[in-house]
Amino acid sequence: MRKTRGFSLIELLIAVVIIGILAAIAIPAYMDHIARGKIAQGVEALAEAKVRMEQVFNSQRTYKPGGNCPDMSTYFAETPFTVAHNPACTDSTFTLRITGKAASGMSGYWYSINESGEKVSATPVASGATCWLMSKGQTSC
After folding, report:
1. HSE-CB of 5 using CA atoms within 13 angstroms
2. Where are the domains of the chain?
3. How many CB atoms lie within 10 A of CB 66?
4. How far is CA 93 from its chain centroid?
5. Residues with Cβ < 8 Å from 93, sequence gap 6 or more?
6. Which are the contacts of 110, defined by CB distance < 8 A and separation ≥ 6?
7. Which of 35, 41, 87, 135 has a CA positioned 20 to 30 A from the CA of residue 27?
8. pLDDT band, very low/low/confident/very high, at 85 (cuts 50, 70, 90)
9. Are 101 and 35 in contact (CB under 8 A)?
């Protein structure tokens, strides 16, 4: 009786199928984990920008010193989001809104906060939540 070495074709195919199943589970979970990290980075910068807006109001008694809304883009330079005053700030109100950059894989994500601390957010799966959704699959807070 001759002893063969190596793998049979069936054994190799079973190994490939198992690797494929593991990859099908692991890759989406990894991508969701990366998105959650980017969201956390964006909302942290948004919370910091709100604090800076309140500091402007406390020192100037307006959210619009010199007739212009303060530029908050410096807080978002290292994040996968862009920031805008939406709508434009007034002497007594502001709404900051961050929108995900498509190049960073955050297309469809946006978060906002106003002078009262009211939060609104949207992800590619859910929109109009009255809080900050912290993952793509989250549909309520």
Report:
1. 0
2. 11-122
3. 8
4. 24
5. 63, 114, 115
6. 97, 98, 99, 100, 121, 122
7. 41
8. very high
9. no
For position 2, what pLDDT does the model report?
Answer: 66
Q: Is the dihedral of CA 58, 64, 68, 71 positive or negative?
A: positive
Q: Mean pLDDT, to the nearest integer, of 106-119?
A: 95
Does the pLDDT value for residue 107 go beyond 80? yes
Tell me the C-alpha to C-alpha distance, in Å, between residue 26 and each of 19, 29, 105, 124, 129: 10, 5, 18, 20, 28
**Count of all residues that appear for the chain in the document:** 141
Distance separating alpha carbons of residues 56 and 64, to the nearest angstrom = 8
Tell me what pLDDT residue 1 has. Answer: 59
Q: Beta strands of 13-106 (E only): which ranges?
A: 81-85, 95-100
Q: For 45-78, write each residue's pLDDT tens digit.
A: 999 999 999 999 999 999 999 899 999 999 999 9
Q: Under 8 Å CB-to-CB from 8, ≥6 apart: which residues? A: none
- What is the CATH number assigned to the segment(s) 11-122? 3.30.700.10
| Alpha carbon distance 59, 72 (integer Å) | 17
Looking at per-residue pLDDT, the higher value among 139 and 112 belongs to 112
